[in-house]
Amino acid sequence: MSAELERLLDEFAQRYARGEPVDVEETLRRAGERADELAPLLEVFLVRNVRRAASPDALAFVRSLDDPPIVRARVAKRLRVDDIVDAIVRACDLREEARPKVRRYYQQLEGGILDPDPVADSVWDAIVTLLGRSRAFFTAPRGGPVVAAAPMYRADKLFEPSMVSYSRAEPEPLDEVDELFLGPPASD
Amino acid sequence: MRDARDAEDKRLLETGEIDLLLAGWVETIRGICVARMRGSVGEDVAQAVCERLWKELKAGRHRDGRLPFRVVVHSVIGWVCRGWFEPGWQESELFDLDGAAPDETQEVVIELTLEQFVATLPPGDGEVAALSYLEGLEPGEIAERLEKKPNAVYQAISRNKQKLREWLEA
């Protein structure tokens, strides 16, 4: 092992002892081609050392663990929904007028309401680039599908079709934003 | 010191302060997972470890204090890292709390501590190592505290660096 790796290890140990943040990835990056030698030593160092007191960031992270993964990743990066929307609009070369619709779709995606599978690669690229996590991480099923409770209705009124108002207008054709989030329309 | 931290973990479990308990382990979990898996995969694995532990804690597991919580943490880290690249593993088994779980009876050998490392050193170097690795003092501060010449402290630090590496490799 080179003196440089010993120096990095020593520096890591001292930062840890001083209660300063330690960044394993950055330390390994600085080790360059010898990162493979240093990685197991850092791992053993952390295993053999006592854990430090919880930081406010770590506590906020744990308290967000019940949120959907995209929300968690966004909060961890201290980003707003609009930051992600901006990135998607830019990456997909969309018009500024498309922002509200992109925002609506993104919030559905973030909240787990929108099926992530048909969402275009270009949208995912923008999201994962900004959030620094893999697409698989966001789309992996978590604890199985959520099953909604059976609906219950009050029976104090009978259904009258005349009470329902509906539009006879043709549904609007899908635009490019719809296609980015819902996938291309099925051909008949 | 490790015993004190184990006792603190036990207290947090008993008082139900499970968010504080897990938050105290987040840094260690991330560091180990990134070192073992490397890159953004390490972050994903760490996330999965935290999620697993969080769900277990919320389900009331480990409150019996049968094992120190650190043993549970290291068991879950090892279990998640080993299974990470197995197809379908993350989605199904990881979050099935009633299903497969890490075998905590295979207690991870983590009884060695940095304090024990310091205790293995010759007295002079050990004093320097204690102030450097346990208290995080700079060489100048160590020289002042021990009333030694800075050069002597730097020489001890140089010897300790090598010994630390050997101890971690063993």
**What is the structural class of chain A?**
mainly alpha
Approximately what portion of the residues of chain A adopt beta-strand conformation? under 5%
* Shape designation of chain B: elongated
Structural class of chain B, by secondary structure, is mainly alpha
Biggest beta sheet attributes of chain B: none
Gyration radius of chain A (Cα, Å) is 24 Å
Provide the low-confidence segments of chain B as ranges: 91-100, 105-111
> How many beta-strand segments of chain B?
0
Number of strands of chain A: 0
The low-confidence runs of chain A, each spanning 5 or more residues with pLDDT under 50, are 143-149
Strand content of the residues of chain B, in percent?
under 5%
- The tally of domains of chain B stands at 2
Q: Oligomer, anyone?
A: heterodimer
- What distance lies between the first and last C-alpha atoms of chain B, to the nearest angstrom? 22 Å
Tally of DSSP helical segments of chain A: 10
Overall, the morphology of chain A is elongated
Q: Helicity range of the residues of chain B?
A: over 70%
Q: What is the share of helical residues of chain A?
A: 40-55%
Structural features:
heterodimer, A: 188 residues, mainly alpha, elongated, B: 170 residues, Arc Repressor Mutant, subunit A, 9 helices, 0% strand
Quick description:
Chain A is mainly α. Chain A is built from ten helices and no strands.
Describe this entry's structure for a reader.
- The complex is a heterodimer of chains A (188) and B (170).
- Chain A has helices at residues 3-18, 24-31, 35-48, 56-63, 69-76, 81-91, 99-110, 121-131, 135-139, 176-182.
- Chain A is an all-alpha fold and 188 residues long.
- Chain A is elongated and about 80 Å long.
- With 170 residues, chain B is mainly alpha-helical.
- Chain B folds into two domains: 2-92; 114-169, Winged helix-like DNA-binding domain superfamily/Winged helix DNA-binding domain (Arc Repressor Mutant, subunit A).
- Chain B has helices at 2-14, 18-37, 39-58, 69-83, 89-92, 114-120, 123-134, 139-146, 150-169.
- Chain B starts with a helix and ends with a helix.
- At the A-B interface, helix 1, helix 2, helix 3 and helix 4 of A face helix 2, helix 3, helix 7 and helix 9 of B.
